[in-house]
Amino acid sequence: MTLSGKDLQKKNAGYKAGEYIKDGMTLGLGTGSTAYYAILKAGELVKEGYKLEAVATSNETARIARENGIEVLDLNDVEHIDLAIDGVDEIDGAFNAIKGGGGALFREKIVATLADEVIWIMDEGKPVDAIGEFPLPVEILVYGHKHTLKELADLGLNPVLRERDGKTFVTDNGNYIADLNLSAPLDIENVAKKLAGVVGILETGLFLNLCNRTVIGTEDGAKVIENPNKKN
Ligand code: 5RP
């Protein structure tokens, strides 16, 4: 199939990130339509003879990775992660990102914080001057979720319980997602502080300065931007 537009940008970003994969690595594989191409590239490397193993940030990613010949392990069965490659929903110039559009934010954050190196891959629509336009996903406990949603609403965070196919969306961890309808520029510190005070929240889709570099796919190739301030 001939790709064009965003699909081609995603593919070019995923394949470019694949150039950072080295033989013998343990990978953290992200979730979503851009991460998909990095998984395909990793699968091609396995077919070329690379010895790779991976942890997956979602059941869907685990399935795609296995289908492409990649050995997928439980996170508890790996000692460390060399390189995590994942997508983003929005990212600003200071490498502050919103993630979780695909509902995998909790595992994605665990993998990103454990990995020695993190690459965010994206199409040209993802970099923004200021994050906040994309609804900020937060993973919430099912138990008492109506009270959690009310608390979020009382804080002025405009939560909407995520649905898929007319049913409440359930994460791979068995939790719900509240999408917070905010606006750009997001007052990141203020929102993070409010969220930290809500007991029913398990994790947020705010990924602040968590990547070593971004790879932005274009229709001709990909642009790599190094993060000079990543804290390891
Ligand atoms: C999943 C994510 C994805 O990385 C994010 O939604 C980007 O997805 P896509 O590459 O399909 O645009 O955070 O939870």
CATH class of the largest domain: Alpha Beta
CATH architecture of the largest domain: 3-Layer(aba) Sandwich
Low-confidence stretches: none
Small molecules (ligands, ions, cofactors) in the structure = ribulose-5-phosphate
Topology pattern, helix = H, strand = E: HEHEHEEEEHEEHEEEEHEEEE
DSSP, total strands: 16
Q: Numbering strands along the chain, what is their spatial order in the largest sheet?
A: 3-2-1-4-7-15-16
Largest sheet: 7 strands, mixed
Count of separate structural domains: 2
Distance between the termini: 40 Å
Structural class: alpha/beta
| Helical content class | 25-40%
Instruction: Please tell me what the overall shape is.
Output: globular
CATH topology group of the largest domain: Rossmann fold
Account of the protein in words:
- With 232 residues, this protein is of the alpha/beta class.
- It has two domains: 137 residues, Rossmann fold (3-Layer(aba) Sandwich), CATH 3.40.50; 67 residues, Alpha-Beta Plaits (2-Layer Sandwich), CATH 3.30.70.
- The chain is 28% helix and 28% strand.
- It contains six helices and 16 strands.
- Helix 1 crosses helix 2.
- It is globular, with a radius of gyration of 17 Å.
- The model has no long low-confidence stretch (mean pLDDT 97).
- Bound molecules: ribulose-5-phosphate.
- Ribulose-5-phosphate binds next to strand 4 and helix 4.
Quick description:
This protein has 232 residues and is of the alpha/beta class.
Which SSEs are present, and which pair or pack?
Layout: H1 5-18, E1 26-29, H2 35-48, E2 53-56, H3 59-67, E3 71-72, E4 81-87, E5 90-91, E6 96-98, H4 105-114, E7 115-122, E8 136-140, H5 145-154, E9 159-161, E10 163-164, E11 167-168, E12 176-180, H6 188-196, E13 201-204, E14 206-208, E15 213-217, E16 222-226
Parallel strand pairs: 1-2, 1-4, 2-3, 4-7, 7-15
Antiparallel strand pairs: 5-6, 6-14, 8-12, 8-13, 9-12, 10-11, 15-16
